[in-house]
TrEMBL record:
Phylogenetic classification of the source organism: Bacteria, Pseudomonadati, Planctomycetota, Planctomycetia, Pirellulales
UniProt keyword Signal, yes or no: yes
Gene3D superfamilies: YVTN repeat-like/Quinoprotein amine dehydrogenase (2.130.10.10)
Region Disordered: start-end pairs: 388-410
Keyword terms, alphabetized: Signal
Species of the source: Stieleria neptunia
Name assigned to this protein: Uncharacterized protein
Signal peptide range: 1-18
InterPro entries: WD40/YVTN_repeat-like_dom_sf (IPR015943)
Length: 429
């Protein structure tokens, strides 16, 4: 029997030294330090985490906090691995409410679990149904779940539509960010015309392919057309606050074997923005180094990158222009998962770091843009077992009122969700 890449990874993990919570021994990591009130809102024996930093985790009351739940750690998920999805009621003793399950998930972004719109009545996540990836939409009023026949990557602020990408292709070319279980019919095609980004109506389920991989592969490159022979995919989509444009990272790998699903070397990135129908495309960052990003309003993007002739750092790019300026280089010198707090605290950037080399601690912090001041919220240990695809980044997420921050952390016997209170720090802004 031929093993898939993920089946092989799972077998290797089970036969290697057991992944266990003894790796949280403080001798292997620096100590936990927090500088604001911090508490766990989930608990074992199962593990809990939310995933990515640009999804809405809190309901409008800021008391219901979404989370995934899983019974294992330390290996890639396979098609047979099911997680529970639900929320923690922080207004009622942190009670856990399960609302469904998913067979379409990864350690970094979970199953795209998120609240829809501003009414607090709908929750969305991705799942697998038969030979398709789909999304589920749960009603907190009726307790019923309906299905949309496309998985969703990002949703409009009002929750009326979302954008979908091909998670089968992502799984091949960026393991850990796609979903296992379904073969990519275009695995041997470098830039397929029928794969790309779809706009999906979350009320009717109607869908339209608005940007294909063939479209972007054909866009001019500054250094010629050699990239046309690479293997192209899309990753990291985000709709603007006014729902008029979206960001997508167009990535490619120069070498990929469609028979073995193996690739050599890294990937190259260019950031595109486009109108919400896929037209009016603009290469905002052609550097090849674009990493984490967030919209600043609806006409600018703050991102970690390395523009031509500049050092790596956070920069603000004005959409559809060549205007670029550095942001917080002295206080935010390393890559992290950056967002802006909501109004009235939109001058604050919420960010984190990866584990440092000596103590393996991740720092969660706030940066006040007008004053240039940085406030560390905590240094969070990340044991060595949490590395690679199943690492546990803190991925800080703000509540809707900006006064609380949720993070994922494995520092105390498995990954769990923690809540930090930042209200007092914001008074200093």
């Amino acid at each position: 029997m031929k093993l898939s890449r993920r089946q092989f990874g799972a077998l290797a993990a089970s036969s290697a030294i057991a992944f266990n919570h003894a790796t949280t021994d403080a001798a292997e990591t620096g100590p936990l330090e927090t500088f604001v009130p911090c508490r766990a809102i989930t608990r074992g024996p199962k593990n809990h985490w939310f995933g990515y930093y640009d999804k809405r985790e809190f309901d409008p009351t800021n008391t219901l906090v979404l989370s995934n739940e899983v019974s294992f750690e330390g290996r890639s998920p396979t098609a047979g691995d099911t997680i529970a999805v639900g929320y923690v009621d922080t207004g009622n003793g942190d009670r856990w409410h399960e609302i469904g399950t998913s067979n379409a998930w990864g350690w970094q972004q979970g199953c795209m679990l998120q609240w829809l719109g501003d009414d607090g009545n709908r929750i969305l996540w991705n799942d697998r149904q038969g030979d398709s990836f789909v999304c589920r939409i749960y009603s907190t009023e009726t307790k019923k779940t309906r299905t949309i026949n496309k998985p969703i990557y990002t949703v409009s602020p009002d929750g009326r539509f979302g954008l979908s990408a091909d998670f089968r292709r992502i799984d091949n070319l960026r393991p850990g960010y796609g979903y296992d279980g379904l073969a990519d019919p275009n695995v041997a095609v470098r830039a397929p015309a029928d794969s790309g980004i779809w706009r999906v109506d979350l009320e009717t389920g109607g869908e339209e392919l608005i940007l294909s991989l063939a479209d972007v592969a054909a866009m001019p490159w500054p250094d010629g057309d050699k990239h046309a022979q690479a293997w192209h995919y899309f990753n990291h989509l985000l709709i603007s606050p006014d729902a008029q444009r979206f960001i997508v990272l167009h990535r490619y790998r120069p070498e990929f074997d469609p028979n073995t699903l193996q690739f050599k070397g890294g990937f190259v990135t260019r950031m595109l923005t486009a109108a919400i129908d896929g037209t009016d495309r603009y290469v905002l960052d052609p550097s090849g180094y674009t990493s984490h990003f967030i919209w600043k309003g609806s006409d600018a993007v703050t991102m970690w990158t390395k523009p031509a002739g500049q050092k790596a750092g956070f920069y603000e790019f004005v959409d559809q222009t060549d205007q670029v300026r550095p942001v917080g280089h002295d206080k935010m010198p390393t890559n992290g998962h950056n967002t802006y707090l909501p109004s009235p605290y939109q001058d604050w950037i919420l960010n984190d770091t990866y584990p440092d080399r000596k103590t393996r601690r991740q720092t969660v912090y706030l940066y006040h843009v007008p004053s240039g001041r940085r406030f560390d919220l905590g240094h969070i240990p990340s044991p060595p077992a949490y590395s690679g695809e199943w690492r546990c980044d803190t991925h800080p997420r703000s509540s809707n009122d900006g006064t609380k921050v949720a993070i994922d952390s494995p520092h105390d016997g498995g990954r769990q969700v923690y809540l930090l209170d930042i209200a007092e720090i914001l008074k200093q802004g």
